[in-house]
Amino acid sequence: MGFTKEQLRKRERLLRLATRRGRACGALCVFSLILAMFLAFQSIARASYDPALDARCVRDLRERQRAFFDRHACAYDAGEASADFIAAELALRVRARHAPGPCVVMTIGLPAAVGSDASGIDVLERRGSMDGALAAKMGSWVTSMTDAGAFECETRTYVDVQAVQTLKATVQKLGYNNAIVEKLWNDRKVSRQLDEEFEKVVKTSPAAKQIVLINDAKRSRSQFARFQKGLASGKVSVIIWRREITSKRQRKALLSEVRLVARFGYSVYLAGAGKDAEGKATPTAYLRVDHGAWDDIFSTPNTGIELTLVAVHREDKFKTLLDQTFGLCPVKASVLNFNERQGPSCVCDEEKFTSGIANSKCSLKSRLGSSTRNWISSFLSGRTNTDVDGISELDATLEGFGDEGIVRKSN
């Protein structure tokens, strides 16, 4: 049975319409795929690209930072100024202004006492006989935490068993009812680790942003190998830790720590601190040490320098403050496109961190002048089996990630 001309014309029109619809649908699918790929690339680029470390600036940044550290090594010795608590204070001030809400400060171990802080020791609720050095550490910790404003957040502190009751009584006496003091776990036992304590905090304060301070410079590197859930969560905005370097192996381990933390989306800085004319501790230049900006001069063995490292999540406002205000080479512009010709300014501004000629005793050469004494003291106190085990565990963790690195997004 044949078709009339009208039927054939109608059939032709329908076929043409179907063809146009098919082409439009195909074009839409291709466009959607290209758009999705573009957005994914942009997301990855934004997550992995940091304008503060533009590849065109890294070489100049390394040279400037190396020279500055060589002349001002004292500013990076946590034993002379509490750079870790000063960094915590800055981070908490930024959080309160730009991201107010619940917060938790976790501290691990006690730092060495800075100077003779009698006021800090006097606040302790002494119970029976107590070692004077331990009392000084606790007093310094209480004063530093108070000055940093840490007790405005919930705090969870882990200290040696002999300090638990006294420190708990002290913070309660001072009215810090949101402060928890518990026994510090043994590094050698995998059964209790930082990730487990992090998960407890998440259960009780799920919306809280966390700041983690590892105050004891001799805590095992295994802490980072066992903190992968916390690092990947996006809930930890800042990590601050101390390190003393007594061997090339420990220096290599410190660089591995920096690489590990950076792979979870953190920018890492070497924190500096000094004292103003009134004797008040203040922040000085922060040196960027991740993604090619590292230099081995920062961890010269046996100089007696106790370094403070600060890792800040790349989406945190605290990073903006460090890059624009406390970075030795402040960022003047931002670039999110790799192909743009105009990049961030590589002009370094050292003058605002120095007042006149640098003190000669603060040079790295001067610090190395007492290397014999530093070597003996650090060798006796700094190298432990726990630390060797921690380095091995850290190396194994890095090998598990491979060379491609990882990028984690915030929740």
How are the strands of the biggest sheet laid out side by side? 3-2-1-4-5-10-6-9
Give the number of DSSP strands: 10
For the biggest sheet, the summary is: 8 strands, mixed
Percent of residues in β-strands? 5-15%
Number of helices: 14
Low-confidence stretches: 41-48, 116-121, 333-341, 403-411
Distance, first to last CA: 67 Å
Share of helix, binned: 40-55%
- What is the averaged pLDDT score? 79
Identify the overall geometry.
elongated
- Nearest-angstrom radius of gyration? 27 Å
Q: What is the H-and-E element order?
A: HHHEHHEHEHEHHEHEEEEEHHHH
What class would the helix/strand composition place it in? Answer: alpha/beta
Description:
With 411 residues, the protein is an alpha/beta fold. The protein has a domain at 73-109 and 184-401. The protein is built from 14 helices and ten strands. An eight-stranded mixed β-sheet has the order 3-2-1-4-5-10-6-9, with helices on both faces. The N and C termini lie far apart (67 Å). The model is unreliable at 41-48, 116-121, 333-341 and 403-411 (pLDDT under 50).
Compose a concise summary of this entry:
With 411 residues, this protein is α/β, with parallel strands linked by helices. It has helices at residues 5-48, 55-71, 83-98, 118-122, 132-148, 161-173, 194-204, 222-225, 228-233, 248-263, 317-326, 364-368, 371-382, 385-401, and strands at residues 103-108, 154-159, 179-183, 209-214, 236-244, 266-270, 273-275, 281-283, 287-288, 306-313.
